[in-house]
Give the backbone structure.
Amino acid sequence: MTYNFAFASSSASTASDPFSARHGQSLPAALRAECAAMSWNQFESTYSAMSGPIRLGAWSIEKTAPGRWTFEATLGLGERIQKMSATTTGPIAAMTSMLYEAGISLEILSFHQQQIGRRTATFILAESDGRRLWAMGIAGSPTESSLRAMTSAANRFEN
């Protein structure tokens, strides 16, 4: 898993970067090239696929040992609601484990986060069964933003 917490350059033309046109910060270069002709609405509906078969409900964390936490989540998986848990070193590993347990294999190849005002935007390049795609999540915290990006990626793979 690659973590890139550096802010992307803001020198991209807003005409070719719908995120920059909306939030004043550039997308990761590979994603920017992929969505250059999109409006903000097209970009958001494509990369932030929150309405799909995978939905994230409740999320809780409990420290269990030094460097280890138990994460619990309520996931909507199609028509069923399932409570899941994973004991890992962090929320991304926990969500990856929970999705895998639900039958969704997802590997994060590239990870980018940016602050946009009081919110965080997370962009991930994910792979599943040989397919690669970008997904985005925006939320009030870096963790929630990451979980939203992973949920969006899972939904994009499922569609």
